[in-house]
TrEMBL record:
The chain crosses the membrane at residues 24-44, 261-279, 300-325, 331-354, 366-386, 398-427, 515-536, 718-741, 748-770, 776-796, 817-844, 850-871. It holds the Pfam family Patched. One of its GO terms (biological process) is molting cycle, collagen and cuticulin-based cuticle. It is a multi-pass membrane protein. This is SSD domain-containing protein. It is found in: Cell membrane.
Length: 1036
């Protein structure tokens, strides 16, 4: 299980020595390369089409739109507003009463007419010698601009309601023989039940179509649209409230998100710089006193970590741009995220350097620090990069682009940490070494105090150990220890490490706290599941926009009135067949009725279909029985019907083709009015029902479409994509955990923590008012990687600790990594905290999700995971003990297990090892020794007994291993002793999570060797024989 972890440490140690020798190069080269790559920010491939970015690439709505584009291209001549199936080239003015009341009054209608005239006549823009008014850019029908003629018609009817041949009914009004659909123009209508005329109305939609076929038309359109937006958003009327929209509005307002974010970048980076610098201040504790370790107060590495992350983000964006990837404004959130998240690796490296033995050379300290932090840093980067890498495989372009840029930033920032940050770490270690030397050379009483502390430590350690093991001592040693401070009182420990491994671990490992933690987890799980049961899907377009956007007001007004009743759906019949045939014609009429009379259709009165009006034309005006017409006569009458002025709108609804010498209908379209289309649930159901009806009429090859269809498609695509991303992401996280965390049970609980955090994020997102949409998909992808970081760090530290008791292992893990993990969580929260008040749904969604991920991740890493790991460890120990007892009773216990289980040796009372048939040895080793214990165990215990004869040959082997283990002999010595005394010793190992430099050996409670007190490594025959003599004294 530890193959990758062991080799990663080995490679890291080799790499660290290279960095130590050439730190300037590792700082200068990344800076130069970063500046060069950052120039790519000047050439970003911007792509801001909301329809493309936030809807599924292969969504049915995009296919349906393509069908209409192939049959009825939007640049075709002849404009009728109801026939425009997209917003391309159109400007809209949505009018409501300022008091929310009736606009069907003479005063309000006159005000609407004034607005219409203002747009058509007063809005003009000048660019150089070019002056443009509406008449210069408008799309024309019959060589005239569209001027919303219904305004004047309705106004005239309001003034003279008894006008002949006019009925102002709803949703269609009738003028002579012509029916005009009002449902998409007037909203919030109340009907007079006696005559069907309109009594009141709440909203009116004015439409201004513009030419866009050529590049020159497009250029003029954009110029006039910009002036239209400026003038109409500032337009004020005492009676009317106005909201506007044009085909570039949504994209332009999306760009404002980046503009809103830009002013927050500098404060964010300054805040992170201040926090990182403050985090370098190390609090230490000696006895009951807490003080600042002045030698560790340089903020060089922390500030370098922030600046390196900023440079990594800039250069990664530039590099990605140079590689040709598109850019969209949602990526603007990425710098806040990456800079704050990547600082956690800086904290891990600072903690590793602080934990390295200061008595080692600077080079060895760097090697120890980097090899110590290598696995944690690699695990963090790999999980984050993989989670966003998985996010690149999605149907939503916005998510894909964001994940590409973010994954690139994570990788490039990691490279900067391996180079720039490691180089700064070397200079920081050298600075600390110089500071320590100055203190020693100053000749102050401190050096004398330190020497006294060391001498007292050597004697007090033995006394302390005897006291803990129930050993009484007499003579000189006992007298020397009277009134002397103990080792614990003189030992300087890091404050937060001591707190988390001491007081905090003691509290959460108590039985009462374990029960309380289990109850908290059950409540958390219940709340998460409850939230997941109420998931809401879909992203309304206006939620993409910043707070106060005029486009958001427009969409909300549409939802309130037009989408409630009157919005039109386009229906294309691509293979109509021979409509002169009675059966085929009846099938077509049946299709129209099924769509119109469905649950979301407003009935046949909401249909605009040439076929139904044509049949009425034949019977009512021509007096012709359609069933008696031949195929050619049928089509001749169709041509006559279309050439009538009142039926002009239908002319482009039919696509003709030549069949021999005759003309036949190749395809046609019609429109159906819809109702109750004003929320995500009804939109999803309405689209599904219309598509179902279309698919049931397969013979006609029917396609339905509205410009909202692609946005509705996301509702069905969101959940499968989230499940796919979560599934792939979790599998990748499990694989990484299995590869990098030595113990499988720890990997199991890390996997459980990932699933639990993701479940909580999704559940609490719902309870917090967030939908499942493209924005939350990005944040959920992000949560997969971030959720594993904290738990993986704790589980990894737990797995490498060699203490026999699970509680001791969790104390070590919390002591080493709880504070760096909390620092990483705080820095991430600070990075996104400035986004909380921006008001944009998209930005606030990021903030809420990051808050949930960090909070729940810390909760699992620091509370739930320690409980699970210790309970599992204790259960495993109990099972192992019972197994050993059973096997022992039948004489089948292996010698190594029997030695480890036998720990009830007698103690001496004269300061010397006691005589017994079993001798107890305790190894106290530092963090380097732990790694050696684990990494070399298999090789050492597989050696033949003849290789461990206790003579020079064994120490020759130990010296050869010292090169690989970097001076750690604990495991080698342990194996040597077990071979020398195969059935007569019991060896236990105790880690020292707070202090480095330990290699202590006790024999029956008495300290016989201490590296920290000056005995060094057991690297000579004399030192080894000293230990063996102490063991033999117990056996005599």
């Amino acid at each position: 299980m530890d193959f990758f972890e062991r080799n990663l440490r080995f490679v890291s140690a080799k790499y660290a020595r290279v960095v130590y020798r050439y730190p300037a190069w590792f700082i200068a080269v990344p800076l130069v390369v970063g500046v060069v790559f950052s120039t790519g920010l000047l050439f970003l491939n911007k792509f801001d089409n909301a329809m493309y970015l936030y809807t599924p690439v292969n969504g049915a709505g995009k296919y349906e739109e393509a069908v209409f584009q192939s049959l009825w291209p939007p640049e075709a001549d002849g404009y009728f507003p109801s026939r425009m199936y997209s917003a391309k080239g159109q400007c809209f003015v949505y009018v409501t009463a300022k008091d929310g009341g009736n606009i069907y009054t003479e005063e309000a209608l006159q005000a609407i007419a004034n607005v219409n005239s203002y747009v058509a006549e007063q809005i003009q823009v000048t660019k150089g010698d070019l002056t443009l008014k509406y008449e210069d850019v408008c799309a024309r029908a019959n060589n005239a601009c569209y001027l919303n003629p219904l305004v004047q018609i309705v106004k005239a009817f309001r003034q003279s309601p008894e006008a002949a041949n006019v009925r102002l009914t709803y949703p269609k009004m009738v003028i002579g023989n012509q029916a005009i659909y009002l449902g998409s123009t007037i909203g919030g209508v109340e009907i007079n039940k006696s005559n069907g005329n309109i009594l009141s109305a709440k909203a009116w939609m004015l439409v201004y179509p513009l030419k866009f076929s050529s590049e020159d038309d497009q250029y003029k359109k954009d110029l006039w649209q910009g002036e239209f937006e400026k003038r109409m958003t500032d337009y004020d009327n005492s009676l009317l409230s106005i909201s506007v929209f044009h085909d570039n509005s949504l994209d332009n307002e999306l760009n404002r998100n980046a503009q809103v974010l830009a002013p927050r970048l500098l404060p964010c980076f300054l805040l992170l710089l201040a926090f990182s610098a403050l985090s370098t201040v190390q609090l230490t504790k000696r006895g009951d006193r807490v003080c600042v370790n002045m030698r560790s107060c340089s903020p060089l590495v922390a500030i370098g970590g922030v600046l390196g992350a900023c440079l990594g983000v800039a250069s990664s964006m530039g590099l990605t741009s140079y590689l040709g990837f598109p850019y969209n404004k949602v990526v603007a959130i990425m710098p806040f995220l990456i800079v704050s998240v990547r600082i956690d690796n800086t904290f891990l490296m600072i903690a590793a350097l602080a934990a390295a033995d200061r008595r080692l050379s600077v080079e060895d300290r760097i090697v120890e620090a980097i090899s110590e932090a290598a696995v944690s840093i690699f695990l963090t980067v790999a999980t984050d990069a993989l989670s966003f890498g998985v996010g690149c495989v999605t149907d939503f372009p916005a998510v894909r682009i964001f994940c590409i840029y973010t994954c690139s930033a994570i990788v490039v920032t990691f490279v900067y940490q391996l180079t720039l940050l490691f180089g700064l770490l070397v200079y920081e270690a050298r600075r600390e070494d110089q500071a320590a030397k100055k203190v020693q050379e100053s000749g102050t009483p401190i050096s004398a105090i330190i020497s006294k502390v060391v001498s007292l430590t050597k004697t007090s350690t033995a006394a302390s150990c005897k006291e803990q093991n129930g050993v009484r001592s007499e003579g000189k040693v006992s007298n020397d220890l009277k009134n002397k401070p103990t080792e614990k009182e003189n030992e300087e420990v890091e404050f937060f490490n001591n707190f988390f491994s001491g007081q905090y671990a003691t509290v959460i490992m108590s039985n009462q706290a374990r029960v309380l933690t289990a109850l908290i987890f059950l409540l958390y799980a219940a709340a998460s599941i409850y939230g997941c049961m109420g998931i809401r899907q879909g992203l309304e377009p206006y939620k993409l926009l910043p707070l106060g956007s005029y486009v958001a007001t427009y969409y909300q007004n549409l939802e309130k009135y037009m989408w409630t009743y009157g919005i039109q759906m386009h229906v294309a019949v691509v293979e109509p067949g021979n409509l002169a045939d009675y059966k085929q014609r009846e099938k077509a009429i049946s299709l129209v009725r099924m769509l119109a009379e469905s649950r979301y259709g407003i009935g046949v009165e909401g249909v605009e279909c040439w076929l139904t009006d044509y049949l009425h034309f034949l019977t009512r005006q021509m007096g012709v029985d359609v069933d008696e017409l031949s195929s050619s006569s049928f089509h001749d009458y169709v041509m006559l019907f279309l050439n009538m002025p009142t039926n002009e709108a239908y002319r482009n609804d039919i696509i003709w083709e030549t069949q021999g010498s005759a003309m036949r209908i190749k395809a046609f379209r019609f429109l159906v009015g819809l109702k109750n289309f004003n929320d995500t649930v009804s939109q999803r159901e309405a689209v599904a029902e219309m598509r179902r009806i279309a698919s049931n009429n397969v013979g006609f090859n029917v396609t339905t479409f509205n410009k909202m269809w692609p946005y509705v498609d996301q509702y069905d695509a969101i959940l499968p994509n989230i499940i796919q991303e979560c599934g792939f992401g979790v599998m990748c996280m499990i694989l990484l955990a299995l590869v990098l965390i030595p113990k499988a049970v720890c990997s199991l609980w890390v996997t459980f923590a990932i699933v639990s955090v993701d479940l909580g994020v999704i559940g609490f997102m719902t309870l917090w008012g967030l939908n499942m949409d493209t924005v939350s998909m990005i944040t959920i992808v992000m949560s997969i990687g971030f959720s594993v970081d904290f738990s993986a760090h704790i589980a990894y530290a737990y797995s490498i600790q060699t203490a026999t008791e699970p509680v001791q292992r969790i104390r070590y893990a919390l002591g080493q990594l709880a504070w760096p993990v909390i620092q990483g969580g705080i820095s991430t929260m600070l990075g996104v905290l400035l986004l909380a008040d921006l008001g944009s749904y998209m930005i606030v969604s990021f903030f809420k999700t990051v808050f949930l991920v960090i909070t729940l991740g810390l909760l699992h890493a620091l509370l739930f995971l320690p409980l699970l790991l210790t309970l599992t460890g204790e259960f495993s120990e109990k099972c192992r003990w019972h197994s050993c007892r059973i096997r022992k009773s039948v004489g089948s216990v292996p010698q190594d297990i029997e030695r480890q289980e036998t720990n009830n040796c007698d103690k001496s009372n004269n300061g010397l090892p006691a005589h017994n048939t079993c001798v107890c040895l305790r190894f106290r080793v530092d963090q380097c020794g732990r790694f050696a214990l684990r990494n070399l165990r298999t090789n050492l215990l597989d050696k033949r007994t003849s290789d461990w004869d206790g003579g020079k040959s064994s120490y020759s082997l130990l010296r050869s291993m010292r090169v690989q283990a970097k001076g750690n002999f604990a495991e080698q010595l342990k194996a040597n002793i077990l071979k020398r005394f195969p059935n007569e010793v019991s060896i236990t190992t105790e880690g020292t999570p707070q202090v480095t430099g330990f290699l202590e050996i006790e024999v029956n409670g008495c300290l016989v060797h201490s590296k920290k007190n000056g005995d060094g490594f057991v690297d000579t025959e004399e030192k080894f024989q000293k230990i063996c003599s102490a063991i033999e004294a117990c056996l005599k």
